[in-house]
What we know:
Keywords: DNA-binding
Radius of gyration: 11 Å
Shape: globular
GO molecular function: DNA binding
Number of domains: 1
Distance between the termini: 19 Å
Structural class: mainly alpha
Amino acid sequence: MVNDFYVKNLIESWGSIRQFAKEIGCSYEAARKMRDRNSISPKYWNIIIQLSESKGPPWVLR
């Protein structure tokens, strides 16, 4: 079974690219590029995981 993970969906769980960028500590442009590439820069994964666990989006595996 293939797990279809899309960065766009992750970013949308924050409500907007701008909010996502603000909370993870990157520029709007960097967040937009991550969405367009469908790839998160490795330097942001830890903060995204920490924030996601506290927010509880449905895609987070516990």
